[in-house]
Write a structure and sequence with these properties.
single chain, mainly alpha, Sufe protein. Chain: A, 8 helices, about 55% helix, Fe-S metabolism protein SufE, Fe-S_metab-assoc_dom
């Protein structure tokens, strides 16, 4: 998976339509989440589309599988995952993920429906990290 910084470097030079295409591409590039993991327990609440996040990995290296049934939303999911993927739980628990995503200016680039579930997804990721970091 590409780093958030690498993605932003490309994103910054694109116009609105190209940014949509990049988000769709990022969503397609997400590691496949098996359908068996797409359950009510892994569903992120508050999203306009269905979004599933499944944490794997250990405290020293968090790893998440994620998916969505909507292409643009899946790209936004990929941005959130890129911000935290394979980082230590202690770092992610303290991280301001929303601030890490701020350079993408998603609220002004996308409709509020597309981004409304992002805070819930960030909270889920950080809560999982905090549990692992606490031991």
């Amino acid at each position: 998976m590409r780093t958030l910084e690498d993605i932003h470097e490309e994103y910054d030079f694109l116009d609105a339509d190209e940014r949509y295409r990049l988000l769709i591409e990022l969503g397609r590039d997400l590691e496949e989440m098996p359908a068996a993991l797409q359950t009510d327990a892994t569903l992120v609440r508050g999203c306009s589309a269905q979004v599933w996040v499944y944490p794997t990995g250990e405290a020293d290296k968090l790893h998440f599988l994620a998916d969505s049934n909507a292409a643009i939303t899946k790209g936004i999911v990929a941005l959130v995952i890129a911000a935290v993927q394979d980082k230590p739980a202690s770092e992610v628990a303290q991280m301001d993920v929303a601030q890490a995503l701020a350079p993408f200016d998603l609220k002004n680039q996308l409709s509020s429906q597309r981004t409304q579930g992002v805070p819930n997804m960030i909270a889920l990721v950080r809560e999982h990290a905090a549990r692992l970091a606490a031991g």
